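Supplementary Note 2. Why include the ligand at all?

Several targets in our set were suspected to adopt different conformations when bound, so apo predictions alone were not considered sufficient. For every target with a known small-molecule partner we therefore ran a joint prediction. The input for flavin-adenine dinucleotide is given below.
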Amino acid sequence: MAKVAVIGAGLAGSEAAYKIVNEGFSVDLYEMRPVKTTPAHRTEKFAELVCSNSLGGKEITTGAGLLKEEMKLLDSLIVKTAEEFNVPAGGALAVDREKFSQKITEILENHPNINVIREEVKKIPEGYDVVIIATGPLTSEDLSKEIQKLTGAEHLYFYDAIAPTVDAETVDFSKGFWGDRYSKGEGDYFNCVLTEEEYERFYEELLKGEQVPLKDFERAVFFEGCLPIEEIARRGKQTLLFGPMKPVGLVDPKTGKQPFAVVQLRKENKEGTLLSMVGFQTKLKYPEQKRIFRFIPALKDATFVRLGSIHRNTFIQSQKVLKPTLQMKDKPNILFAGQITGVEGYAASAATGILAGINAARMLKGEEPVVPPETTMLGGLVRYITEPKEELQPMNPNFALLPDLKGKKIKDKRKRKLLKAERALKDMKKFVNELNKEKVG
Ligand SMILES: Cc1cc2nc3c(=O)[nH]c(=O)nc-3n(C[C@H](O)[C@H](O)[C@H](O)COP(=O)(O)OP(=O)(O)OC[C@H]3O[C@@H](n4cnc5c(N)ncnc54)[C@H](O)[C@@H]3O)c2cc1C
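The joint prediction is reproduced in token form.
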């Protein structure tokens, strides 16, 4: 009988294994805990939530909320179990983490078609028809080396240095100008201009900003030349002006002069709906980032779709090595799922696990692997991580990933999100119906 190996019983691996056995196949599910643990996990349970106990917003007008609704249509084990063990958390879906992981562990361990193997995988196991790698942001060292061999060393990153990303619709474009340094390039940068007074105010606030304490295993990041913006600022008032805020090579068309300081925003997707703050990786606490970065005049009313951070994160450059079906381009029987693909957060990781599971089962049945429609949050995410770009930085579910509403210009942001969400759910239902029809047919 055809067999699948799923490596890693985290959020993604649990979903993938569950999907595959529900399609009638057998899975060997490899999990290294408790034989070997990661720096963040505390138990030997599957789908352990390593930090917050929240799976993000519930409303379909939030990126995570819409994704979870789509996941329910795809029969998600994670969302189903989270709802069973939810605890009150306002608009978010938070869970009793012990009961949540315990239940998922029981379901998978007791399943007759799942063989749990508690060992560290150091090499891609042989003798399987399909292998899914879902070993997460803290993939063990030996397996990371193996993945480097598989993908090319330059395509595996060990750290995120995430700069905040803003929704382009909320940027005040009158407070800067589009243009590349020394006019070299395609005009993909928007330069937010700061006068000397504005820079000083921003600088003072940056120095006062409260930081997230570093975990021991994260300290090494700073030795890799990846300094947070606030650390650069601490080295002197001028340092930023020679670093990420340097104005050299730029001329403001309004004044004909070089600005005093700039913050460059770079398009993060083809449509230019997402703009990231170049060189602004930071360890500032999230509310502090919003408060301080709004001192940049063009960002006064900005919506941050993702805030900055620096942390240990093993992830591949999916745009170079994966197809949107999550198969490797040159070894299609190997799929990746979870945070290691460059998606971010519990819900997004689990969702890619479902897709990898669906596709693994389809491959075993001799069917073509699928990708959900681009109008869905899951479809938008997998397209984002696999579409061509120089460098992939991890992405969470958000509405800027979804195409515009055809023929409609709706000013009200919430209304626009609601319409996009309704379209996404309609299209996901259709996608699921098609899959089910094929099963019956
Ligand atoms: C410190 C920290 C804090 C975080 N906080 C949050 C948060 O608050 N909210 C949020 O949404 N996301 C958070 N994340 C991200 C979070 O880890 C992911 O969203 C999610 O857990 C990823 O799911 P996954 O299935 O890809 O990986 P994981 O859930 O990490 O699962 C991977 C599994 O693979 C196993 N494994 C690794 N290597 C091997 C191997 N060689 N052989 C066998 N098994 C192996 C691991 O033990 C683990 O069980 C945090 C990450 C870190 C590191």
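The CA atoms of residues 80 and 176 lie 47 Å apart. The longest strand covers residues 309-316. Comparable summaries for the other entries are listed in the accompanying table.
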